[in-house]
Amino acid sequence: MSVTLLKRVMLKNILSHEDTVVEFPRGFIAIVGPNGAGKSTLIDSIVYALLYSGKGPSGIRGGRKADLLRKGATYGEIVVDFEVGGKLFRVKRRLGLSRPEEAELYEIIDGKEKLLSRGIEQTYKTVLSILRVPTSEALRASIISRQDELTTLIESIPSKRKQLILQLLGLEELEKARELLGEEVRRLAIERGRYLEVEKNLNRRRQQLQEIEREREKLQNEIKALEERRNKLAEKLAEMQRKFELIEKFTELTQLYELVTDKRKYEEKYRCLRKALKALDRVAHVEIDYFEKLLKEYQDVKRRWGLFRQRLNATLEKLSKLVGGKIEERVSETFENKYKELLIKEHRMKAELEILKNSLQVLRDSSRCPICGRVLEQPEISKISNETRERIQRLLQELDKIDSLKKNVEVKIKLIKNLENDLMRLEGSLEEIESRAKELEEKLKPLASQVMELYDSLKRVAESKDELCEEERSKINGFVRQGCLAAIKETKRLLENLRGMCSSIEEMLTEISKKLTNVSEEDVVKQYNELKRKLTEMGINVGNVRELYAKLKLGIEHLKTELMEVEKNLERLNSREQTLLEHYEKLVKEVDELSKEVYELKARAEVYELIEFLRSGILGKDGEIAKRLTIKARTILERVTNEVLSHLGMSMRVRITPDFEIVVRNELGEIPVKNISGGEKTALSIAMRIALAYAVLGRMPSFFILDEPTAHLDEERRRGLFDMIKRISGRLPQVIVVTHDREVIEIADYVYEVFKEGSRSHIRAL
Prior knowledge:
alpha/beta, Rossmann fold, 6-stranded mixed β-sheet, 66% helix, 13% strand
């Protein structure tokens, strides 16, 4: 397997580098220095020298030619030496303010330069050929990680990631190949179209010949079939006409027979109805609705009487509880008298209280007795005063009790008066209800007697088989079982229906009699039965005779029409056969001419199909190659990524879906790539870049460039990243890391420090 290594880069007047030379041995190479020292210019210059095609951005910060040259310089040069499979190559890029950019590629043989290509585009293509990569993007997206681009691949959305990977694998070349075949396909398509058109015409003519042959054979069969059909139709028509005549006669007799049958049936029904009307005539004169109305009102009055009686008893019970004993007339007057007695007693006590208060005042103002006027000693005054105060206190207590009794009596008086008023209203209502109940009883007695008598009569009629026919007797029986009132009401409704039915039957009998004028009913019945027997013997179901009559009539008409059509068709078919023969001879001549032309066009059409198959099915971004390439690329990416992760000591693994979505598997299960830690993202980015390089190059890469991979990482994650890079360097021949973090010095195999003195960058080995 050939190994590709960077050997040396030389910069003259490029950005801050005036004259810089850096050698790149095998192993882990670290380029360290502070930000702005010119470290990344080394990597940018390598990318520019090897991978700039002259189109698009140069890849070096600045962009314009004047911006790439060191300030004050008019000329600059980049020289990069690289080794492929043991052969040494050198790329030179020269820039000048006053002349076009130059590019040359040499092979170094025994220390001498052998020119391989000159010019920007040609040099670019030759370098790609030597490196065996399809495009410069294949390296930029995989083993050359520019500043802030390390995680770009895994952080892209799946659709963009898929597009980039397939583009790097040469999908565009497949599309270009498909487009190149397009013009040839279009030219051949025209000839193929002509071939298809001629072949279509030939097939159409051949098909027409076959159709004519089939049609002639069909015509002969049709003629034979029509002749047989004509004979069968004639026989069938004769048989149908014989049946039709019999059925037509039977249909006429059936109408008369049905009239006779209906007449006898209606006469019997009319007799039964008249018999029922006579037997039930008494029911028609009973005012059952009036009786039912009075009965309902009486029941309602009795119900109301019960309700008022309950309310009256409840009111009396309340009054009895309030009085606390037996109720006498005008209970409220008794309580009013008690209230008056309390008032008199209260007035007396208040008068005594006033006298006692005045006596106390007299005793305070003088030493004389307030009653007899004599002069009192002090002990007597004290004794009389104390006795008076005690009496006043007792009077006040008695007055409080009287006041409480007054309030209680007032409440009871109010409640008693309300209850007495309720009693008066209830007693008045009960008197009115009892009066109405007696009035209704007087009216109901004669009616009830009449109704019960009529109900008994209905029961007798229902049990008798002489007074009613079975149908009406059955109905009356059903009515009787419903009870007295229901039986009479239903019977009245039945009478109304029976009268209506009698009228209808009278009209129908009159109409039937008119239709049977001058017709012997016995003869009609006899002829009907005889013809019915004959039809039955012929296998005809007389129950469907009307339907059969219509079918036979229609069938005879159809048969006559069909016979006429058969004759016309025979004449038409003979004429058609002659026309087909003439057309057949003309088509045979046309088929011979078209066959010769198709033979000449077929060979060119077959070439078109092959090329079109390649263009539409094999090549292009949607062709079979692209589909298989997609599956293969996804498989390689997933396998190599997991191998590198394992080599890096990472426990996580990845799965790449058909849409190139990255799913990470760890001890927690499957999670989206966006949910992993920063250190895990860095490890995964390195692994995927190496895997992508393997997929694109078909081999593991020989070198790997990382420009500022520790940006935005904390100290712990930086140490972890450098440990991973160290492991990678054990697997790849050459790993170059550009960083401002000096921790890398301890683990790198070779260290170069870039620093500035004034505006110029310098480099030295550590």
